[in-house]
Design goal:
The chain is an alpha/beta fold. It folds into 2 domains: about 1-120, Rossmann fold, CATH 3.40.50; about 125-320 and about 340-360, Dihydrodipicolinate Reductase, domain 2 (2-Layer Sandwich). It is built from 14 helices and 13 strands. It has helices spanning about 10-20, 35-45, 55-60, 75-85, 100-115, 125-135, 160-165, 180-185, 185-190, 210-215, 280-305, 315-330, 335-360, 370-380, and strands spanning about 1-5, 25-30, 50, 65-70, 90, 115-120, 145-150, 200-205, 225-230, 235-240, 250-255, 260-265, 270.
Length: about 375
């Protein structure tokens, strides 16, 4: 039986606790939050043995095998290091750390101590994402050539967005990339899975949307476009937007044979045929094939729902389950450390460029001027 603890008892901790409950062979032995009321409410709503307000005390008294860290990002490094040094395997919510160097140090510590470490990029482990990965492994794409990731955000969210915009001391504002920093690692990690270079070139352009400017917000970049390229190999685009409609969480992968579209919002996977049909058939057959694929996706989702296997947080359950199996069987972790580091590296490059542009132009991020482009080219030189 794996003994599990959760540090940080905010909203996301509920999802962790619910997912852990559905996994056999584990129990939540403790929860912890600096705010006693937060720790108590999670303790009372889930089958948890103990609650704490001090992490060191939790580690001494509860002696968990695994610790889930669901606190704000600036605390991830120190908490994860403490847990690893105490002999615990660690699951860290996204973003893994604030800086690349912190990610390197945690992974080095995990490898040195023989412990397992992972990050909460659970959207790579939804049922539809696992189907996509299996199809790619079968050779359907051929050689991946280009990847595009859209990971958007709706600023009309009545809780998180309003709290952020109305609080000048909000913890998100302390992150190097602010709002973007707290959200985009899911979308960037999807790209990192396909990149082969250890140091891809990154060119980032971000700005404050007209909507935010209209309410006097000039600090929070909420529109981001990124180009990632490997010399004579693969390329990738990343888009983050609060203004695009519909709000998208989508991955497109194009290979030397065929392509794929993963629509995370609707749990849909669409195959893109690499060859055209002859003449007018190319106007009639593809729409029919797309309709058939959408119908199959619908039937699959209905079947999962009727079988009570359709969960909004299926990715988290699958990732946690895979992580626990890697611990029990001493098997490879579900997310390779190389991908965790590459995601952190790309994010570091993005925020370095955004902050350089801000320093150069003040808060008027109106376009990628020559100075910004010089920085972009030199990030990995």
């Amino acid at each position: 039986m794996l003994k599990v603890a959760i540090v940080g008892c905010g909203k996301i901790a509920d999802s962790h606790a619910a997912a852990i409950q559905r996994i056999e062979g584990c129990e939540i032995v403790a929860v912890c939050d600096r705010e006693p009321l937060m720790a108590r409410q999670l303790f009372e709503r889930f089958p948890v043995k103990q609650c704490f307000t001090d992490v060191a005390e939790l580690l001494r008294e509860a002696r968990p095998d695994v610790v889930h860290i669901t606190t704000s990002p600036e605390s991830h490094f120190d908490l994860a290091r403490l847990c690893l040094e105490s002999g615990c395997h660690v699951y860290v919510e996204k973003p893994f750390t604030v800086y690349l160097e912190q990610a390197r140090r945690l992974i080095e510590l995990a490898e040195r101590t023989g412990l397992k470490l992972t990050v909460g990029h659970d959207q790579q482990f939804t049922d539809v994402a696992l189907r996509m990965r299996a199809l790619i492994a079968s050779g359907y794409l051929g050689v991946p050539v280009h990847v595009e990731s859209h990971f958007n955000y709706d600023l009309t969210d009545p809780n998180y967005a309003r709290a952020l915009l109305g609080d000048k001391q909000h913890w998100v504002r302390r992150l190097p990339g602010k709002l973007v920093h707290n959200i985009i690692s899911h979308g960037v990690a999807r790209l990192a899975e396909f990149l082969t270079s250890e140091k891809p070139h990154v060119i980032a352009f971000g700005y404050v949307s007209p909507l935010l400017r209209s309410i006097g917000e000039i600090e929070i970049v909420d529109e981001l476009r990124v180009i990632i390229c490997e010399e004579e190999r693969r390329t990738a685009y990343f888009t983050f937007s609060t203004q695009m409609r519909p709000v998208l969480h989508e991955l497109r992968v194009f290979g030397s044979k065929n392509g794929l579209i993963l629509d995370q919002d609707h749990d849909v996977l669409i195959r893109l045929r690499g060859k055209n049909f002859k003449s007018y058939l190319d106007r009639f057959v593809p729409p029919l094939l797309f309709a058939q694929q959408h119908l199959r996706n619908l039937m699959r989702n209905v079947k999962l729902f009727l079988g009570r296997n359709y969960h909004m947080d299926s990715g988290m359950k699958n990732l946690i389950g895979s992580f626990y199996r890697s611990i029990r069987d001493d098997a490879p972790v579900p997310i390779p450390y190389r991908e965790i580091l590459l995601t952190a590296q790309i994010m570091d490059a993005i925020f370095e460029q955004l902050n350089a542009a801000r320093s150069h132009d003040g808060f008027a991020l109106d376009g990628p001027d020559d100075a910004t482009l010089r920085i972009a080219r030199g990030v990995e030189q």
